[in-house]
Amino acid sequence: xxxxxxxxxxxxxxxxxxxxxxxxxxxxxxxxxxxxxxxxxxxxxxxxxxxxxxxxxxxxxxxxxxxxxxxxxxxxxxxxxxxxxxxxxxxxxxxxxxxxxxxxxxxxxxxxxxxxxxxxxxxxxxxxxxxxxxxxxxxxxxxxxxxxxxxxxxxxxxxxxxxxxxxxxxxxxxxxxxxxxxxxxxxxxxxxxxxxxxxxxxxxxxxxxxxxxxxxxxxxxxxxxxxxxxxxxxxxxxxxxxxxxxxxxxxxxxxxxxxxxxxxxxxxxxxxxxxxxxxxxxxxxxxxxx
Length: 290
Hints:
Helix content: under 10%
Protein name: Coronin
Number of helices: 0
Main location: cytoplasm
CATH class of the largest domain: Mainly Beta
Structural class: mainly beta
Strand content: 35-45%
CATH superfamily of the largest domain: YVTN repeat-like/Quinoprotein amine dehydrogenase
Keywords: Actin-binding, Cytoplasm, Repeat, WD repeat
Radius of gyration: 19 Å
CATH architecture of the largest domain: 7 Propeller
Low-confidence stretches: 261-267, 273-280, 285-290
GO molecular function, one term: actin binding
Number of strands: 22
Oligomer: single chain
Shape: globular
Subcellular location: Cytoplasm
């Protein structure tokens, strides 16, 4: 027996779905932002269309011609910078925008008319909303970042539960840990910070994540203390780093990828495979869509 552990991903191969499962002839937006441009619940897919402030909504599972139907939700007066489905409700969608607001939408079942107005509006903030994410274990709570400000919201009361200490520059990513205890943030000041919002507003840990200030993204792994970051080094090479919050002074591992003159989250994204507890970094060429 080999003394080395064999990786379960050694022979992993990506295979496209059958053509009849494709969603064809849709037009997506190409504007960059720090947030997500496509998200899915267990029932719906939402994505940025080619019209600023308008999302495309389509069923995740359907058959025949129904699969090709995309409805459009006019949700903001400016670019939708990030979006997220509630982990407790497949039809509750949160959207953040360059119009400085966060909106919550109650979406209907496929085939029914989309709402004209949001159920809840949070803000306006002083600067465009960059990123947002629902709390993974508490219904109706979400985190959002606008400029240097990061807030944890009680959506039902339409007011912040707490505002984290101001960052040194634009916040590029804000993500909850799997158990919902911690919030990790990546910032244009190159610092990776860890907060416990219930205990205090200040970060209890911080370290330099990447040497370049261009967009950085974060995701917690299946191991509670482990965090993955993507970003750039001084040579403009894309990097992926693995962090352990118990030993935060340096990364556990670092992988350098190819060189690109400019990077955004769409071009160096973390793809999550929840069932396997795996993470993969996906790069996209300059100017590509979602």
